[in-house]
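About this split. The held-out portion is used to measure sequence recovery: a designer receives only the structure tokens and must propose an amino acid at every position. Recovery is the fraction of positions where the proposal matches the reference. Here is one held-out target exactly as it appears in the evaluation file.
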């Protein structure tokens, strides 16, 4: 009898992977090794080993990747200023390469010849997982059940029925069937009534932040300290990246900060609607942008803004392990040499606003910025500058006027 092929499945314990695990075993006789990454999902991983083994897994490997997630993925993302389509802070996008990287490592350690994921054939995650597999070990076979012609669980309702039939414990019901992805940086919500952009998100959609109607009527203030673009202090005290984000999630969530309702353009060409909560990430992004406004010169800031858009695309498209992303990181690290200082922030009614910025590397000079003229600035210099700067427009206007005659 042929030895069963070992497959490492990226396993979250959510609806999709809960049914895919037994389906792989039942349909093809695979020996499934479940891999779960601890990325700050709260209590979602409680009992996950027991659940995986009860669902037919030969083994379940769980790794705590929170520190690596923050240091090697979130901080580079924060420093880059990347935001996809103006609003999305890339919480799911930036986590997938890390999960897939360790999934490949588990495959090597366990002698598996294949890796599998539960991403659908319509979404972005299939690309993120598979591009990472290809970049790190192209010899591994990629199994994607949602693209398998034998896979009939092609709706969340069908998956719920399958789970009930096979006695697989799940939280989802046909009435509460949101697709959610959570980690330290954010939580996303898709599906059900959210698929129609005409529907306002209900209050019970939000999981880590309060609806605005239930936020306090008094603001909170806090201060984040940065060293070369990386946040290292909260209210003057040194703190680890993981603890910092956890605390900011609580503070921001209390005030409804970081809630985004977005219709976005997926890589596969489909528009989709998602509701995101990124309280801590929104606070840090706001603080980082404020500090850069004080410490980056104009040309560097403007060029970095252009590259931030490209960086966002690379992360969203699953190209984390690409040479271009590494090259952009090298540029970004240079821009962050002077991004050191403290930012005071105000949290109130869904907003996070800078309430004071200071830096030993500040390029801001009060004497130059003041409306009061002094010896530090000769206003007559501006006359010649404006004449030269506007000369092409002046020449064009003169020619136009001459032709008009």
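Reference sequence for scoring:
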């Amino acid at each position: 009898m042929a030895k069963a092929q070992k497959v490492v499945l990226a396993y979250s314990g959510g609806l999709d992977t809960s049914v895919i695990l037994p389906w792989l075993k039942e349909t093809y006789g695979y020996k499934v090794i479940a891999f779960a990454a601890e990325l700050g999902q709260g209590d979602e991983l409680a009992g996950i080993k027991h659940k995986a083994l009860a669902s037919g897994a030969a083994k379940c490997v769980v790794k705590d990747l929170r520190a690596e997630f923050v240091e090697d993925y979130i901080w580079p993302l924060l420093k880059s200023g990347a935001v996809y389509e103006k609003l999305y802070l890339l919480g799911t996008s930036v986590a997938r390469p890390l999960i897939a990287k360790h999934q490949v490592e588990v495959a090597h350690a366990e002698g598996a010849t294949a890796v599998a994921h539960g991403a659908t054939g319509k979404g972005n995650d299939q690309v993120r997982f598979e591009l990472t597999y290809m970049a790190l070990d192209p010899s591994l076979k990629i199994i994607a059940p949602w693209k398998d012609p034998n896979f009939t669980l092609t709706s969340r309702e069908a998956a719920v029925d399958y789970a009930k039939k096979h006695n697989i414990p799940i939280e989802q019901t046909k009435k509460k069937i949101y697709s959610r992805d959570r980690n330290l940086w954010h939580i996303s919500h898709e599906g059900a009534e959210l698929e129609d952009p005409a529907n306002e998100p209900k209050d019970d959609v939000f999981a880590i932040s309060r609806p605005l109607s239930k936020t306090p009527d008094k603001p909170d203030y806090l201060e984040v300290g940065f060293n070369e673009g990386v946040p290292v202090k909260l209210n003057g005290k040194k703190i680890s990246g993981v603890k910092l984000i956890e605390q900011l999630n609580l503070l921001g969530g209390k005030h409804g900060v970081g809630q985004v309702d977005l219709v976005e353009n997926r890589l596969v060409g489909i528009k989709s609607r998602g509701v995101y909560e990124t309280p801590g990430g929104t606070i840090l992004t706001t603080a980082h942008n404020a500090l850069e406004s004080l410490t980056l010169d104009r040309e560097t800031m403007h060029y970095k803004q252009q590259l931030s858009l490209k960086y966002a695309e690379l992360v969203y498209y699953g190209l984390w392990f690409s040479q271009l992303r590494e090259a952009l990181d090298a540029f970004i690290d240079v821009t962050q040499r002077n991004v050191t200082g403290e930012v005071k922030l105000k949290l109130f009614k869904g907003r996070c606003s800078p309430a004071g910025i200071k830096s030993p590397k500040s390029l801001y000079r009060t004497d130059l910025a003041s409306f009061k003229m002094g010896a530090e600035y000769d206003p007559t210099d501006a006359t010649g500058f404006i004449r030269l700067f506007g000369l092409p427009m002046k020449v064009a206007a003169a020619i136009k006027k001459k032709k008009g005659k």
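Annotator remark: The mean pLDDT is 93.
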